[in-house]
Amino acid sequence: MTADEAIIRETYDAFNARDVEGALRNLDDSVSWADGEGGMLEGKSEVRKHWLKQWKEADPRIEITKTTRTADAVVLSVRLRARGPNGAITQNDLDNVIRIENGRIQEMRIPSAKGAATSS
User: pTM of the full predicted structure?
Assistant: First the structure.
């Protein structure tokens, strides 16, 4: 595992554990982070607010299924599962493109969903 991959795994593990400070630890102060709804959050403060709101409304879990290195980013294939307030579970497979500089996550983009979300 590369240093960049270790940073990403630590961040995603903290997100899944609902450890907001741990999840933010490796993000640059001016990070640009996809909100999952087509928009971008700017800065750690916006990301913190978004995650705390998201955790109140649903129970999302992110599983990294594949990691690919490109010239300027790490592309994660992830499976996002979320349990809504009514107990329904949705699942979506998508990519997260993460750019890291100097050991800090600068950006996370979601280029497009791989397939339609499923629910149960």
Answer: 0.89
Please state, in angstroms and rounded to a whole number, the distance separating the CA atoms of residues 120 and 29.
37
CA distances in angstroms from 101 to 3, 31, 73, 88, listed in the order given: 11, 11, 9, 38
* H-helix or E-strand spanning residue 90: strand 89-101
Q: Which amino acid is at 32?
A: S
Residues 6+ apart with CB under 8 A from 51: 15, 20, 23
14-38 per-position pLDDT tens digit: 999 999 999 999 999 999 999 988 8
Spatial contact of 64 and 44, defined as CB atoms under 8 Å apart: no
* Distance (Å, whole) CA 116 – CA 32: 25
Residues 52-68: what's their mean pLDDT? 94
Helix (H) or strand (E) holding 5: helix 3-16
User: Cα–Cα distance between 67 and 53 in angstroms, integer?
Assistant: 28
